[in-house]
Amino acid sequence: MHPDELQQYLREVQILLARSSVYAEDGETHEEIPALVLPAPEHAGTLRLQLDALHPADIAYILEALPLEERRYVWDLVKAERDGEILLEVSDAVRESLIETMAPHELKAAAETLDADELADLAPDLPPEIIRDVFQSLSSDEREQLRAAMSYPEDSVGALMDFDLVTVREDVTLEVVLRYLRRFDELPDHTDKLFVIDREEHLVGILTLESLLISDPEKLVSEVMRREPKVSFAPGDDASDAAQAFERYDLVSAPVVDRDNKVIGRLTVADVVDFIREASEAEILSHAGLREEEDVFAPVWDSVKNRWAWLAVNLVTAFVASRVIGAFEGSIERLVALAALMPIVAGIGGNSGNQTITMIVRAIAVGQIEESATKRLLKKELGVALFNGVIWGGLLGVLAWWLYSSASLGLVMTAAMTLNLLLAACAGVLIPMLRQRFGGDPAVGGSVMITALTDSGGFFIFLGLATLFLL
Amino acid sequence: MHPDELQQYLREVQILLARSSVYAEDGETHEEIPALVLPAPEHAGTLRLQLDALHPADIAYILEALPLEERRYVWDLVKAERDGEILLEVSDAVRESLIETMAPHELKAAAETLDADELADLAPDLPPEIIRDVFQSLSSDEREQLRAAMSYPEDSVGALMDFDLVTVREDVTLEVVLRYLRRFDELPDHTDKLFVIDREEHLVGILTLESLLISDPEKLVSEVMRREPKVSFAPGDDASDAAQAFERYDLVSAPVVDRDNKVIGRLTVADVVDFIREASEAEILSHAGLREEEDVFAPVWDSVKNRWAWLAVNLVTAFVASRVIGAFEGSIERLVALAALMPIVAGIGGNSGNQTITMIVRAIAVGQIEESATKRLLKKELGVALFNGVIWGGLLGVLAWWLYSSASLGLVMTAAMTLNLLLAACAGVLIPMLRQRFGGDPAVGGSVMITALTDSGGFFIFLGLATLFLL
Hey, where are the domains in chain B? Predict the structure, then answer.
């Protein structure tokens, strides 16, 4: 590598380093990047030390922000024993680019530093022979956990849970619990409650750290614990339901139990926050037709693959709309103003329909709409559409009249706008409601469908009305 | 009210009641709605009891899912002393509809049940005279807190923080701290750490409950505490930066300090989760041009107000695009196929541009892109656009050739598609990057701008090329 290049990206890394820790100890954000001392190539050692001092999530942030080559260079500087935890923190796309550069023995070493639940997260990206090797090296308990964690579908509670439990018995005093805890070197992250179990490991109650701390230590666990855990999950539960419960009840951790009410794991708010963030990013990306999060520095070909499906669908719907226009070529030839006005009718219909469908899909997602509300919603949305049609359509009608000196063209414009807005409102309510009824995901592709409908529909309504009344 | 109506919505409420608690004690989701006993009108008392047993967040959920009239009926059944906490949980739109129905003395009573930070959240929706009354009834400490909380801008740490602190001194033993905690009836929600302060209330360290529990009680706080709090915030810090820090470092709570490093408040993961959810919802809604979350059962007029701005902007951009077409009316008259083909060029350009801008905006938001990367990103996106232009544009060119038996029309089609995709790629990278450079929010309205550009640009490129080479 050319020394200038190395200098250039050591500088970039320095900038990122300065920004990576979101907050300095003084509680101020790093708005200003401090003056940089450019490290000479032989100073990679300094950089290595700086990286060693960072939280794995901060290193992940730096790796994600670096272009491919620089990313690999920094990745090589990171201590091998931290590879595993950093791989967990980076996005899927970046993880792939890092794993590609690692030798099998490095991957195996990285994987072996992880807990069973973490390993399960990483497993889909690892070569099968590495998984097999790592599996051999686990204790039988851990094997069981790994097998369990990998058996749950991606968006289930089972896939998010960890196995770091602190359990106590109900027939001991709090004093005994306090002494028991002092034997730990550390408690699992996000321990805000201990799980009270009986001899057969059934969950019988919850002892919060709060009640442990504020109660008289002479008391028995059974006197202090909450017997009915407010919230517990089954591993097959939907992760988004669990996330909703965490939000609604402000939970920090919650037990996961099997059918026999045995505690098998724990869900923490950290996992839930990650899930919420990922789910909402996926929603935003899918609105724009991106299949998944993209590594911004990915090669052209990766981006093409990520985006082609949407463009293909869009091509088909645009072609259909184009054929609708094609059917009215005779009319356009006789009144060319139609060609200039028709995209307005289609465009406004599409935007209005997208407003409606976005609102309905969100309301369905948070459980605010029952099927019984369909009629009521339809009535309301048609009201909004009629209002907008008369006002905006009327305005455009006047404009068309003024531009082309034809009152009847203006009237057709207003009528077509209103009808297309009504079509958009119906579709915006019915597409997600019907999907929900037939068990589909009301969100997927709704925006494509509605745009296709209002484009073709808008052209058809406008050109059709014009052909009937103007020619 | 007609008894049938009442029955109808008591039934609706029953369904919601059955669904409201996301999880039953047995850890199973309520997939099936249990057979319902329809309450007679006189059984409102039963409903009241059922409501009393629910978590305020669950009642908020029910209220949000009910149409206006039913919502008011249920709201009247809720115990007055719970009004305050429920108002905090419902969405802004629904909160407005509930407050409208309340008498001033009810509002005042509800407000008085709240903490200063909660009151600050509610204040913008309350009539000023209520605020004044409530303010009078506060202690001077609380007044100071309320004033402080209300003075911070909406998306700052100050607006999210609460004032429920447990502080300790560093020169006492853990045993003393444990005894001190036992004097509490309860600890503030999400207490995972105590704040260690000196005589002047400066933050000198953090004592986690974990280290309190696992360490020898004979030790001094100063021996066990972490002297440099990993993360602390200033009240003026950006809430989204704070949310990123919570996500990255898996925090449960963090201190908020003023310029002199005095602890003035605390940020908890519950507030952060709410913030993340709201921010991502706002982003999704704004993509569809909805100004804010909408109460799905709001009257037509409220919806019109929420949506009109976007439609107005859209009208202007569509009108501009229409005028571009208007300028080429002569060409269209001579070759009417242009009218049918032009929306394809514009539409695909818009979609592709939206993919690019969505990706860039997201990468900027998570801090993955520096300005120095602009050239590199531009090169990559232009590569993707060129590829798509040649492949998809070529395909459409062949289709146009086949439909209209004109090879030159096909060539113009391919060239126009490619150029418009290149335009979309440039705009998709440059719009957000330039906005960030000039200190604007890279997300706002980017999608409108790019669609406007690729519509007008697409029409201009296609019709212009056709006029030059075909006529």
Answer: 3-152, 167-287, 300-469
